[in-house]
Design brief:
- The protein is of the alpha+beta class.
- α1 packs across α2 and α6 runs antiparallel to α7.
């Protein structure tokens, strides 16, 4: 078997989540279903995805009588469909898993399920999934999940910044254009010709690189999409799995390579992290003026159990930025740098960029430009998916200076935005998968101010306490104009409270029940001695801080308008409080009041008491 065929086989095995052991009521049924699944695996290995998924569907029907095996195969199929970006069947199989054994789903699985729904425009279904998990500690601590909540709520609230103009390039195709960099002064971009790619954007398959000469701005000449041919033809095919970076003299190339563990060709379905491959950083040197690269080799000694990717060569080729999930970080993929040691003629020890940059999520695609560090993250508060951030970089100290700047819409969106490559302080290319039809595309960005100087409220990574304790993201309080608060219902119920008016999820419309209560209040006004009323508006925890603050204000104003229309003419005092966190005691009381069983709790109903307006008598 040739090395290339072996690599193809092992690559496919990386994503074939095969259970270690399957127990079926009928051994014959197990053999039959197993044969079909293995046949599907072989089709998938050959990238015959349509036939493979049809066989998986047949296999899961045969597994229907055994719940454990059925759930395992449904989860495998959900993940594979999601990686193929076929979101309808992905969401259907995730739903089967959640219905029968939600405990096997990781936080990432739930986020993928929510994304699969919202990518179809099924926002209400996605919100219901979010609410069913919003009160579990593992989700409340996971920033990607919080950003997923924000993606659902901010679709109503994101305002375009007039200082940023974004243009989608004409050269984009139905294939993923997933990276922008340069070869000397020539901008490059990468296309993947495979349907099967990593949704976490770590690497892509069947990659080719092309020159980039288009901005997409009105009045400029569009660049035609390239034919299937390779720019930099002498780059070995095995090097073409992701981002590239070149030294200034173009004699050294660093790239992302998929490295296979030949001893491990299958994995436990439930243990998603136990993959038989990892990505590594390799480099190659130009041997002569014919631009032929030498055999590639590891940049430095890299632990085979972890991944290293997204190289960025800087400091005249003597330093390198990259991302890795190696031990000792703050969670997920962190940004590292490593320097060349002239005395030992080797690379030194990788240095983590620290909690001012890294979070418990993933930080990817680092770029240094004119004293600025640019990267993508799903661990810092954003709109959803990966967002692009900027911070000033202290070259001497090798660390970030000040807070992070989150680039506004239309740069960042509720989808994945990443791989920013500046061509000047006010111009840049970046990648986004906001166009669901054409997948990942190249966009051109023009700014009215220099990159990184536009920041209304900079924010930071982890607090010192959290960084020392292992890396749970904690904001320092400067994310938005509205100060984050988590308060108990009981702490906001002083004497003088008349009643509470409750609202449906993500709504400022009065329910029939609320209208009945308000009409009764108006008819019984004589029983109350007041000269003015205070209306305190609240929202639940789902969604962004700013959005929920505005929602709580709208709710209070809706109640005020109703009372005014019905003859209440006293002065009103409106107070919007934004998100409200129910205390554990209040949650327990609500759950017990409905007598739900474990796993059947309707968290939307439980959290209803946070979506309200309190009416107070102000003498």
């Amino acid at each position: 078997m040739t090395k290339k065929i072996l690599q193809i086989l092992l690559l496919a095995a990386a994503f074939l989540f095969i259970p270690n052991a399957v127990t079926l009521s009928s051994f014959a049924q197990e053999r039959k279903a197993g044969r079909i699944e293995r046949k599907a695996d072989r089709r998938f290995i050959r990238q015959n995805f349509d036939k493979a998924m049809k066989l998986y569907e047949e296999a899961v029907q045969r597994e229907a009588t055994d719940l454990e095996s059925s759930v395992a195969l449904h989860l495998k199929m959900a993940r594979l469909y999601f990686m193929l970006r076929e979101y309808v069947p992905a969401s259907e199989h995730f739903a089967e898993v959640m219905r029968n054994n939600a405990a096997v789903m990781t936080v990432s699985d739930v986020c993928d399920y929510v994304d699969a729904l919202r990518f179809q425009g099924k926002d209400r279904e996605a919100e219901a999934i979010c609410l069913n998990h919003a009160y579990k500690d593992v989700y409340r601590r996971y920033q990607r999940y919080q950003n997923t909540l924000n993606a659902l709520s901010m679709r109503y609230a994101i305002q375009e910044d007039p200082g940023f103009s974004v243009y989608r390039l004409a050269l984009n195709t139905d294939n993923p254009e997933f990276w922008v960099g340069s070869y000397g002064k020539q901008p490059l971009y990468a296309i993947s010709y495979s349907r099967f790619n990593d949704p976490n954007k770590l690497f892509f398959h069947q990659t080719h690189y092309y020159p980039l000469n288009e901005t997409g701005e009105p009045g400029t000449k569009p660049q035609r999409a390239p034919k299937y041919s390779n720019y930099l033809r002498n780059i070995p095919a095995d090097l073409q799995n992701g981002a590239l970076s070149f030294s200034p003299d173009l004699r050294m190339m660093v790239t992302t390579v998929i490295e296979y563990n030949r001893m491990k060709t299958s994995m436990d379905l439930i243990s998603r992290d136990a993959r038989p491959f990892h990505t590594k950083l390799y480099y190659s040197i130009l041997k002569n003026d014919k631009r032929k690269f030498s055999k590639y080799q590891p940049v430095f000694l890299q632990d085979p159990a972890y991944s290293y990717a997204h190289p960025c060569v800087f400091n005249d080729g003597k330093s390198l930025l990259f991302t890795s999930d190696m031990p000792g970080g703050y969670g997920g993929f962190d940004l590292y740098m490593i320097h060349w040691n002239e005395n030992t003629r080797s690379w030194g020890t990788p240095l983590n960029l620290g909690p001012d940059v890294n979070t418990e999520g993933d930080e990817l695609f680092p770029v240094l430009y004119e004293g600025r560090l640019l990267f993508a993250s799903n661990g810092l508060p954003g709109y959803g998916g990966y967002d692009i951030f900027s911070t000033f970089w202290d070259a001497e100290g090798g660390k970030a200076q000040g807070g992070m700047t989150h680039l506004p819409y239309p740069v960042n969106s509720v989808f994945n935005d990443y791989s920013l490559y500046p061509t000047g302080l006010r111009t840049a290319y970046f990648i986004s998968d906001r166009n669901m039809t054409s997948k990942d595309d190249v966009y051109f960005l023009r700014m009215a101010e220099d990159l990184g100087t536009h920041q209304e409220a900079p924010f930071y990574g982890m607090s010192e306490e959290k960084a020392i304790s292992g890396g749970t993201l904690l904001l320092n309080g400067n994310v938005e104009d509205v100060v984050s608060q988590s308060v108990s219902l009981k702490s906001h119920a002083p004497e003088g409270k008349i009643m509470s008016i409750y609202f449906d999820f993500d709504s400022d419309k009065l329910t029939p029940e609320s209208i009945t209560l308000l009409e009764r209040f108006v008819s019984e006004m004589g029983d109350y001695d007041f000269t003015r009323l205070r209306l305190d508006g609240y929202a639940d925890e789902v969604g962004g801080e700013r959005y929920n603050y505005e929602l709580s204000a709208r709710r209070a104003n809706v109640v005020q308008d109703f009372l005014r229309r019905n003859g209440i003419n006293v002065p009103f005092e409106i107070e919007a409080h934004g998100r409200l966190k129910l205390s554990p005691e209040e949650i327990k009381a609500e759950v017990q009041s409905y007598r739900w069983t474990e796993g059947m709790i309707d968290w939307t109903q439980v959290n209803r008491k946070a979506r309200r307006v309190d009416i107070y008598n102000k003498r």
